[in-house]
Amino acid sequence: MKPTVHDIARSAGVSLATVDRVLNGRPGVRHVTRERVEQAISVLGYVRDVAAANLAKGRTYSFTFVLPNYDNSFMIGIRDEVEAAVSRSGAERTQIRIVEVPPFDAQVLADALDRIALDMPDGVAFVAVEGDEVHASVARLKEAGIAVATLVSDLPGSERDHFAGIDNNAAGRTAANLLGRFAGGRDGRIAVIAGSMLVRDHRERLEGFLAVMGDDFPRLTVLPVMEARDDPTLAAEVVSAALGHYCDIIGLYSLGAGNRGIAHALRQVPPDARPVVVAHELTNTTRAALAEGLIDAVLNQDAGHEVRSAIRVLKGKADGLPVIAAQERIRIDIFLKDNMP
Amino acid sequence: MKPTVHDIARSAGVSLATVDRVLNGRPGVRHVTRERVEQAISVLGYVRDVAAANLAKGRTYSFTFVLPNYDNSFMIGIRDEVEAAVSRSGAERTQIRIVEVPPFDAQVLADALDRIALDMPDGVAFVAVEGDEVHASVARLKEAGIAVATLVSDLPGSERDHFAGIDNNAAGRTAANLLGRFAGGRDGRIAVIAGSMLVRDHRERLEGFLAVMGDDFPRLTVLPVMEARDDPTLAAEVVSAALGHYCDIIGLYSLGAGNRGIAHALRQVPPDARPVVVAHELTNTTRAALAEGLIDAVLNQDAGHEVRSAIRVLKGKADGLPVIAAQERIRIDIFLKDNMP
DNA sequence: AATTTTCTGATTTACGTACCTCAAAAACTG
DNA sequence: CAGTTTTTGAGGTACGTAAATCAGAAAATT
Lengths: 341, 341
Known about the structure:
The structure is a homodimer. Chain A is α/β, with parallel strands linked by helices and about 350 residues long. Chain A folds into three domains: about 5-55, 434 Repressor (Amino-terminal Domain) (Orthogonal Bundle), CATH 1.10.260; about 60-165 and about 305-330, Response regulator (Rossmann fold, 3-Layer(aba) Sandwich); about 170-300, 3-Layer(aba) Sandwich (Rossmann fold), CATH 3.40.50.2300. Chain A is built from 14 helices and twelve strands. In chain A, strands 6, 7, 8, 9, 10, 11 and 12 form a seven-stranded mixed β-sheet that branches. A five-stranded parallel β-sheet of chain A has the order 2-1-3-4-5, sandwiched between helices. In chain A, strand 9, helix 11 (about 260-265) and strand 10 (about 275-280) form a beta-alpha-beta unit. The mean pLDDT of chain A is about 90. The interface of A and B includes residues 183 and 329 of A. The first copy, chain A, binds a DNA duplex (30 and 30 nucleotides) through helix 2 and helix 4.
């Protein structure tokens, strides 16, 4: 039978109250007594029943998620996952509030964070936009003792406790590896289409991509990046234009959103003249494009994992626990048409 | 504030005991009263506090895992994960026992299952070996009201409740897709090395692999499968022999274990003459080989996910709950050197 | 109408922990 | 030594649910 606090008390020859004081780091226990209790704990192999402890504590965690009101499938996925967490929040003794802000605006984000700080939640998670104002707001949140995590897009150098997202440089490198190998030793051009170079994750993906392309695939020429602001219509135009202008584009890396437009543009090209395509995020669009053969590989970050990781970390930080890095690392998933979930 | 059973009782105008009867499906409640209570539950949005319920129930689940005492890295990984679950088992109100059996022996496995049935655990998980004896033992377990799940290798057509493992046919198809594309349109031969065609997962991988190879990559010729019984030494020999015999082997699919031997054999070949290699399971060996460039891609099934999924399902089955298929699907992970976790 | 059966209510105990109070004991002060 | 402070014990209540008992009410049966 699992030992309980009562067993510890009996074994250490102290009262329940003393065990409780030791377990919860409360003052008023002599050093020798404390050691006797700790001894008993380790001998009996006592582990606190977290469920019972939480029940007794009745503690609830309040978190706020700041998300861009940005309607690409991936962000919708993130929002859905946060909302799913909200609906589970009762069972998990957490109370999660969602605040929406316009995307790509550092000042608005900073203001939102400052406003949230007034409510004194236990933790805040947000999709970072770079800017000094944001750094300052994060510093103020930490100052107020609020746990802070960035989601999807990071804010390095700030005082955030944790980043719940993928290594975007590695993602870019993976994309280059796949694209280069799928191109199969042929010479030709590679088109890259991004959302905006002002966004950190897109910049990092490009960096990684270019590094591997340059080192490992010298026979492939990467064209200058085209920015389509994650807009399907714009993306379709840009891709069509590029494919029309160069006849030797054998690869396409879509490192942002707007894949619906890209798929549309590709569909206009005869199947045997289509480039190899690597895109990001498994959405309905990319899933269908994979199945159809328009896209050859999709790199994915699991929105559900990211959101749950952020919550776990915020909870831990609120309790002053350290982050177990290995457990919170978000993987870069690769999907081909054959291993789609 | 979250509603509790007390709120339900008050709102429905019944006593706590009646609410309890409704919630736990106990008899002794009139139809109309039951409906009033259910009404109140849905109006107030009551959700049972599982932690408190488990605490009150004091129920513990007893499960037995039957694992082959088979010393390849992947099986060791599975064992480690089960043991990790054992060490967590206190906190999760589960009691897990591990039984080891020699691999590939249906009769021994069946006997072990029969012996386990005598202890009447709540659930059993095992790595299946095919055989009528095993089917019969599974039927007897189910007869005794014990939940049954297969792990890693399935036993289709049996009465098992669940299979916690990957779709091995899809894995084979994925391997073919990667290998075919990495080979880059060249002509040549593909070598396939397996553990044993007597094991279902290896057979299924091969099937999927051959299907895609035949359909999508007609310029590649797949050599007859070499069986190396998952033994590194034997695998090294077989691969060396094959590479020596044919000079146009441009691809190698290792669909079983023994990759240490294969890596060793590959290292003897000059780098630019090495075939493209796809292997299974991310272990220390394959991880190093990926980094070194000996292996180009690794398909992986996450042992931790599989074990946890099996436990979740057994727990659910023990409580008579249905399996949420989507949640329990084990993904086929693809790792290149750039996206290793 | 009397009896049996089926429901329902009220109440209690328990699960393992947290946290509180109050009193008693022990350990230090000067 | 008395006085003060610190440490400890004993006991209780609470968290939300499960499960049991027993008595009483309502319904169904005779």
